[in-house]
Amino acid sequence: MARSKATPVASPVEQVDTRYLQTLLGYNARRAALSIIGVFLERLAVYDLRPVDFSVMSVIHHNPGVTSRQLCATLSILPPNLVGLIQSLEARGLIERQPHPTDGRAVGLHPTAKGVSLMQQAEVTAAEVEIDASSKLTPHQRQTLVQLLQKIYL
Amino acid sequence: MARSKATPVASPVEQVDTRYLQTLLGYNARRAALSIIGVFLERLAVYDLRPVDFSVMSVIHHNPGVTSRQLCATLSILPPNLVGLIQSLEARGLIERQPHPTDGRAVGLHPTAKGVSLMQQAEVTAAEVEIDASSKLTPHQRQTLVQLLQKIYL
DNA sequence: TATTGTTATACTCTATAACTATA
DNA sequence: TATAGTTATAGAGTATAACAATA
After folding, report:
1. Strand-strand pairing, A95-99 and A107-111
2. Please, which residues bridge with residue A107 across strands?
3. What is the mean pLDDT, run by run of 10 residues, along chain A of 154 residues?
4. Any idea what DSSP says for residue B93?
5. Which tens digits make up the pLDDT trace of A31-64?
6. DSSP class of residue A73?
7. Whole-angstrom Cα distance, residue B120 to residue B114?
8. What is d(CA B23, CA B150) in angstroms, rounded to the nearest whole number?
9. Is A77 near chain B, with CB under 8 Å?
10. Domain residue ranges of chain A, discontinuous segments joined by +
């Protein structure tokens, strides 16, 4: 049988069609998250804070005395993987470990004055990153997006 | 000086306050993406497809003859990291590598009948995952969310 | 007996350098 | 000279098992 169409079987793909993947929520959420985190990574580098360092410091900053266990539960970090993060932040003088007032097993994590100062600056930069990484969104759209995302995971 | 407030300095943190982090788009996007991907991971396990396998197979399925290089650019995968994925999918009989019609360096990736059949089923499951992972969203909200996410990364 | 924090370790994911074959 | 695909390897991120100290 002669081929009737002009397009041969093995014609090269000129432009990759990603329309199907773009219908998937998970695909879009992951791509968007990686895009924002990429900007975050660059702009917070001046503070020597990766996203995970920032989130850990942020929880300690806003919850002085929080325990490692609470941090793990809050940020979905496994306890063995938090140990190095905490040691690093303590070695940099950003946090202090103090005895827990009621539980002898636990340790309360507190920001130092240096840690508080760093986070106050870092949070300003983080707010700028928010805007820059979503510059095609209006403030109202940004707010809507946050609300919809929280309906997914909260 | 006697302490005048009822709350001691080292009072334990009862409930971790995450309100600050929850204002951040990047934090919400990452948490939501991980939540959806978690459901995806479980439900696509029956096809032995991880998210990355699914996305690679999906691009090949909808773009027969696509090259490795095009796949890498489309999915933000580095070429060395794609090699093993392609070899695995080929070993499973889901894709075939054919000579590229116009570029002797490149290889066209084509889904086999088995691969097409698998993806047709997997895409049905993926559609179900979409709904289940965002069950608190109306169809309209889900559509809005996809549109807003694409404004971030496209 | 259960939980907090920790060590050691394994596994996965991602990134870089360098090579070959072809354009 | 530049690009497609590949190899080897390094680094970062994530996971499980097991232990000491305390509840």
Report:
1. antiparallel
2. A99
3. 46 95 98 98 97 98 98 98 98 98 97 98 98 98 98 96
4. T
5. 999 999 999 999 999 999 999 999 999 999 999 9
6. H
7. 10
8. 20
9. no
10. 50-153
Per-residue tokens: B150: 């694409």
- For residue A13, list chain B residues with Cβ-Cβ distance below 8 A: 63-67, 70, 108
Residue given tokens 């690679």 in the structure block: B56
Q: Å from A81 (CA) to D11 (C1')?
A: 16
Dihedral sign of CA atoms B25, B26, B27, B32 in order? positive
Query: Per this entry, what is the length of chain B?
Result: 154
Coil/strand/helix, residue B66? strand
Contact list in B for residue A17 (CB cut-off 8 A) is 62-63
The CATH code belonging to domain A50-153 is 1.10.10.10
Whether B63 and chain A come into contact, CB under 8 Å, resolves to yes
CATH 2.80.10.50 fits B49-153, yes or no: no
Q: How far apart are CA B56 and CA B73, in angstroms?
A: 12
Q: Which two tokens stand for residue B43?
A: 């439900």
Q: Which residues pair with B97 in a beta bridge?
A: B109
Buried-exposed string B1-26: b where 16+ CB fall within 10 A, e elsewhere: eeeeeeeeeeeebeebebebbeebbb
Residue type, B40: F
Nearest residue to A121 via CA among A36, A63, A44, A62: A44
Instruction: Answer whether B22 touches A (CB < 8 Å).
Output: yes
Task: Confirm if A108 and A98 have CB atoms less than 8 A apart.
Answer: yes
Residue with tokens 């995952």: B129
